[in-house]
Amino acid sequence: SGDPLVLGIETSCDETGVALVRGDELLVDAVASSMDEHARYGGIIPEVASRAHLEAMVPTIQRAVGQADVDLSEVDAIAVTAGPGLVGPLTIGAAAAKSLAVALGKPLYGVNHVVGHAAVDQLVDGPFPDRVMALVVSGGHSSLLLVDDIATSVTELGSTLDDAAGEAFDKVGRLLGLPYPGGPHIDRLAREGDPTAIRFPRGLTARKDQEKHAYDFSFSGLKTAVARWVETRQDAGEAFSLEDVAASFAESVADVLTAKTIAACERHGVDTLVIGGGFSANSQLRDMARARCAEAGIDVRIPPIRFCTDNGAMIAALGSAVVRAGVAPSSLDIGVDSSM
Ligand code: KG4
Ligand code: ZN
């Protein structure tokens, strides 16, 4: 087709992602992860991630270009994650993207990682309708985005005031003695438990919070409530079901995410919801969002998990939309923005 060929580079956390997209068609998506190196520390170590990006960057670019069977000279534009994320890792990706842009004489586009998590859905489920809501949930972010145009008009209606959803799962996982990252382990336990066994708090849903924080999230109070509940039982030498704790905790997170997202859809007259980010793998969130959205007449789009975790396709997809919208390229001296 006549659409530009866009190369996307993602390095905001522990995944080195490089992808090629033409229009809304994904040609290749190559990814290298340093997660194995972080797992033994129980969290991402920025220095370790930066070094891993530096080592993986050129091979991953070569792998992407080789698999797509294109020549680098055919690339029309370079898109790169400018933020949010870890400064060191972002800097490695930006340096690679700038070098390519200069060497190839092609325009550079610095794009937003969280918006990329929504944009990638277009590669899978086709172009967005006029207005969509996007819930982006991962270990690093929990954001609710109103998308009028993915390239030019995205409004953040709310985000987490403290822990991201995945981060809360990982912290609760640690206190329950589960391996890092705890999210998938809690999910597995939760599927065997009773989600109504314990009534944990629903963050920022009280009437007094609704005005100011209608679409914001807070999960740190919930995490503390789970810790207290478990400690109380342990101190008393009382047995309890780990499965019930996991299920009740996961229920609280899914309930708040889903309720606030659907309220936002109704408030803004939106009937398509995109869910992205690595936490979208969570069973309770998926099931609850599907069931409640069906009732509310909202169409739910959740890309396959490999497009929900960090990857280059999301950045190439957003870059492709931005280039086609005629947005001016970024300056070659753009910096990175950890809190974009
Ligand atoms: O998007 P992602 O791969 O990396 C970040 O950008 O954070 O998301 C990973 C996060 C981790 O916190 C992980 O524990 C969580 O998502 N996660 C899950 C599940 N799968 C991944 N949390 C709950 N249930 C899951 N099934
Ligand atoms: Zn992400």
What this model shows, in words?
The chain is of the alpha/beta class. It is built from 13 helices and ten strands. It folds into two domains: 5-120 and 311-324, ATPase, nucleotide binding domain (Nucleotidyltransferase, domain 5, 2-Layer Sandwich); 129-305, ATPase, nucleotide binding domain (Nucleotidyltransferase, domain 5, 2-Layer Sandwich). The chain has a five-stranded mixed sheet with strand order 3-2-1-4-5, with helices on both faces. Strand 7 and strand 8 (153-159) form a beta hairpin. The longest helix has 26 residues, at 242-267. The mean pLDDT is 97. The structure holds 5'-O-[(R)-(carboxyoxy)(hydroxy)phosphoryl]adenosine (KG4) and zinc ion. Zinc ion binds at residues 113, 117, 138, 140, 277, 310. The site of zinc ion has 6 residues, from helix 4.
Q: Secondary-structure map with pairings?
A:
Layout: E1 5-10, E2 15-22, E3 25-33, H1 35-39, H2 46-68, E4 77-83, H3 87-104, E5 108-112, H4 113-119, H5 121-125, E6 132-137, E7 142-149, E8 153-159, H6 165-175, H7 183-190, H8 207-213, H9 220-235, H10 242-267, E9 272-276, H11 283-296, E10 299-301, H12 305-308, H13 312-324
Parallel strand pairs: 1-4, 4-5, 6-9, 9-10
Antiparallel strand pairs: 1-2, 2-3, 6-7, 7-8
Helix pairs in contact: 2-3, 4-13, 6-7, 6-9, 7-10, 10-11
The structure holds 5'-O-[(R)-(carboxyoxy)(hydroxy)phosphoryl]adenosine (KG4) and zinc ion.
